[in-house]
Amino acid sequence: MKKEKNLSSFEKLLLGLEEPEVIEVTDPLRKGSPCPQCGEGILDYNGLLQLECPACGFINGESGGCT
């Protein structure tokens, strides 16, 4: 009997078996904005200068900066 390997989410993305969830945002995200994913948390900057939601863990990876 052949045992099937469970694929990680990264492997599934690479093989095209799953599509990442895309969240449509009409207004630019700013510190203090409500989270576009859960609507409960308030976005704030983390240590990598990315906007992060403390409630659901959403991270906006489009920002960031050098110091």
Main attributes of the structure:
little secondary structure, 3-stranded antiparallel sheet
Termini separation comes to 56 Å
Order of helices and strands: HEEE
The tally of strands reads 3
Give the proportion of residues in helices: 10-25%
**Helices and strands: which structural class?**
little secondary structure
Strand content: 5-15%
**Mean residue pLDDT:** 81
- Count every helix, treating DSSP H or I runs of 4 or more residues as helices: 1
Strand order of the largest sheet: 1-2-3
Biggest sheet details: 3 strands, antiparallel
Task: Indicate the low-confidence ranges by residue numbers.
Answer: none
Q: How does the overall form come out from the CA principal axes? A: elongated
Radius of gyration: 16 Å
